[in-house]
Amino acid sequence: MARKKLSTTVYLTAEQDAALKELSAKTKVPAAEYIRQGIDLILAKHREELSGQTELSL
Length: 58
Description:
By secondary structure, the chain is mainly alpha-helical. The protein is built from two helices and no strands.
């Protein structure tokens, strides 16, 4: 079942935009999918910072 997707604005450098468009054209994978995959990689890398628990500083 596909998840609902939300619209957001992302600012890329001209180089990032050109490379992403080239990759998307060659692979026929939408640029938005690559952006979502990149966000998933960053979230996985920083997963420990996203836990619902925070430490109390005494």
